[in-house]
Amino acid sequence: MRHIRCKKKAYPDKAAALTVMHQIQNKDDGKKKPIRAYECEACKQWHITSTPIDNELNTGYRLRLDWSKLINK
User: Fold this and answer.
1) Do residues 48 and 20 make contact, with C-beta atoms less than 8 angstroms apart?
2) Rounded to an integer, what distance in angstroms lies between the CA atom of residue 54 and that of residue 11?
């Protein structure tokens, strides 16, 4: 299966995306900060975003969410 390339900065796995996200969050530069990482269905890599999940669910894009990690047991 061939993957589509996104125009967004992509990371090979969740750990890499979260590492970069935390580095950006710790900068005091006045810029908007990413709040989460997600796996892209188009390129099968990971991206970081400042958009809350609620906003993306209303866009019509299908997200690959692991709900087991979002729900406290």
Assistant:
1) yes
2) 23
Average pLDDT over residues 42-61: 78
Task: Say if residue 54 is exposed, middle or buried (CB neighbours under 10 Å; 0-12, 13-18, 19+).
Answer: exposed
User: What residue spans define the domains of the chain?
Assistant: 14-70
Q: 24, 26, 28: which is closest to 37 by C-alpha?
A: 24
Note the pLDDT tens digit of each residue in 9-47: 999 999 999 999 999 999 999 899 999 999 999 999 999
**Alpha-carbon span 18 to 20, nearest angstrom:** 5
Residue with tokens 């979002």: 70
> Are 69 and 59 within 8 A, CB to CB?
no
- The pTM score is 0.66
